[in-house]
Amino acid sequence: MIKHIVLWQLKDSADGRSKAENAERMKKEILDLKNKIPQLIKIEAGINILPASDSFDVVLNSDFANQADLDIYQVHPDHVKYKEFIKDLVSNKRFIDYEV
Model-level pTM? Predict the structure, then answer.
């Protein structure tokens, strides 16, 4: 199994909305991917509850059966659309993929 985890720091405001509003929008869009991308075994999204200057604001935690399924996810049109949606909201991103 492959775990794919992404952390985002958001701009204080973007797209006419506050950081908190954009975090909620991102969470909703992340969770909607489960119904659109069959290779996703599990997907979770969370919003940081204890913000600090060096913390991240939104997290995606997802599971895939294997690397091939993660590769399909990466280029899936709905995932590409999500990345386009968040590009102006995000100031920083970190990710890790690992096998369990």
Answer: 0.94
